[in-house]
Amino acid sequence: MAHILVIGASQGIGLETVKAALAAGHRVRAFARSAGRIELSDPDLERFPGDALSATDVGAALEGIDVVVQALGVPFRDLFGPVRLFSDATNVLVPAIEQAGVRRLIAVTGFGTGDSRAAIGPLQRLPFRLVFGRAYDDKDAQEMRIRRSGLDWTFVRPGVLTGGPATGRYQVLDRPSSWTNGLIARADVARFIVRDLESRDHVGRPVVLISHALPL
Predict the structure, then answer these.
(1) pLDDT in tens, 5-51
(2) CB 49, CB 36: distance < 8 Å
(3) pLDDT per residue over 2-14, tens digit each?
(4) Cα gap 211→151, rounded to integer Å
(5) Which domain of life is it from (predicted)?
(6) Which CATH superfamily is domain 3-213 in?
């Protein structure tokens, strides 16, 4: 069983990953500024309050860790101003991981990041750019920084996120020719992350995750 650091663990995909990893028998260090308020009870869970932009906090959180899952998010209201969290946090994380001797990093970015941007359908392109453009420009920088590292990385690019329980019925699109947007539950994204950190099937590759495709 792995000792997993989840960065951005207090909500969204990060919190679902904490739950899924614990259910699979892993030890989890849940890192977030509000980590102390995570309402889970498990002897293998360690709540680790910290700031993803603090090299001191991140360095301390990496001690004894086997795998890092970076699952940061920003509030919807912040999408309409400058977004730097993803790249700034990654610029802190990557050298800290390298110094700690950790090899494996799974980074949650999103469909439309990097080379998947070309797969956005014409009906989705303008609204995507208007709402998510600033954030995804920053996610591009996030992915580029990770690619320049020597880490065993995987980019997880989910489509449009939904709530609810995991269904187990989702597609892992690992070829650029198959990439398309769609809906997927956060809990299913988390299940994939835990499965992939165990199998290492997608080291050095980006994957798009969807359950139901959206009209192009």
Answers:
(1) 999 999 999 999 999 999 999 999 999 999 999 999 999 999 999 99
(2) yes
(3) 999 999 999 999 9
(4) 29
(5) Bacteria
(6) NAD(P)-binding Rossmann-like Domain (3.40.50.720)
- For residues 157 and 208, is the Cβ–Cβ distance under 8 A? yes
Residue 83's CB is within 10 A of a number of other CB atoms, namely 20
Distance CA 64, CA 105 (A): 14
Calculate Rg over the CA atoms of the chain: 16
Q: What token pair was written down for 159?
A: 């489509």
What's at 178, amino acid-wise? S
Phi-psi sector, 194: left (phi>0), alpha (psi -120 to 50), beta: alpha
- Token pair, residue 180, equals 């398309």
The average pLDDT across 122-131 equals 83
39/25 Cα distance (integer angstroms): 18
Structural contact between residues 67 and 17, judged by C-beta atoms closer than 8 angstroms: no
Q: Are 158 and 210 in contact (CB under 8 A)?
A: yes
Q: What is the DSSP code (8-state) at residue 179? A: -
Q: Could you tell me the pLDDT band of residue 216, with boundaries at 50, 70 and 90?
A: low
Please tell me what DSSP assigns to residue 19. H
In the chain, where are the structural domains located?
Answer: 3-213
CA dist., res. 144 & res. 165, Å (int):
32
Taking only the tens place, the pLDDT of each residue in 65-121 is 999 999 999 987 887 889 999 999 999 999 999 999 999 999 999 999 999 999 998
